[in-house]
Specification:
This protein is of the alpha+beta class. 26% of the residues lie in helices and 30% in strands. It has 2 domains: 131 residues; 160 residues, no CATH class. The strands form 2 sheets. Strands 1, 2, 3, 6, 11, 12 and 13 form a 7-stranded mixed beta sheet that branches. Strands 4, 5, 7, 8, 9 and 10 form a 6-stranded mixed beta sheet that branches.
Length: 325
Amino acid sequence: MTKNNERGQSMVITVVFMVVLLGFAALVIDVGSWYRAHRSAQSTADAAALAGAQVLPDSQNASALALQYVNKNSSGGGPGTGGTTPQITITQQGYEPDTITVKVTRPAPGFFAKVFGSAFGSVNVSRSATARAYNVYGVRNGIAPITINYTHPLLHCTRTQSPTCAPEFGVPTTLTLEDIHQAGGKDAAGAFGLINLNGVQSGNIGAGELTNWLLNGYQDHDLTVGQYDSAPSANFNNSQFTSALDQVIGQELLFPVYRLLKGPGSNAVYDIIGWVGFVIDSYSTSGSAGTIYGHFTRYTTDGTAAENGGGGAQGLGVHKIELTN
């Protein structure tokens, strides 16, 4: 074999090697691109599922909000830009529609691998996410020490041992804070609708602590449904408390909802059965009593999820939102 022939063979081998090397390099680049598309599709599905879960059990609005999030987060992959319409499924795990699954499918084009054929030009990546809106029996953030009786006309709670409620959210309403005994209650003389969030029989609570809870919420641990002392002799129109009210106007707060109030004066105990979101628009005082004007609102909180129908009153619109897969 001549040297010229050997050179020719080396050149052929080199060309073949370079083609293979370029092919692998192209594959690595495209696989990386497909992996990023995979991660992007998962992030979009996660965001859409969490967004939709915020408004459950309203299935129609939950689906619309999830679709809106998919479209906003679909760079090069949403409906109308090469992707397919996401599959949105809403199911019921508890007492109401509470679970939403969003599946996102979008094309991930290949940039170099397509030189090996049209089959490598693009792949479809599909990712799904499921989020659930759990009813809660324990909550932490945003709890204010102002109670609401479950018979409030806009809560629409059944008067049973384990009530189910259907609040009218966003409808203007009033809350009256006054001496419950003087207002016609059988017990709790000196209880003005304010509650000691430290628990039962933990001693009197001052206006300063009530003011701190109103401004910052109770922070020490999750507060579960159950019995809590009233905050006796802490009148609604205390200057510290009304100053705090001025600062939280327009904010979403969590108010404890009670079914029973038993015992006189400093021994009065609230039976808290749940929590409801409330936005204070304004307030007025009259002597030691007063009126709060505002509206009920849905509220997403950190806290302890209630499984299997537990956790006190159901349907008050306070949920813990979590991805379940």
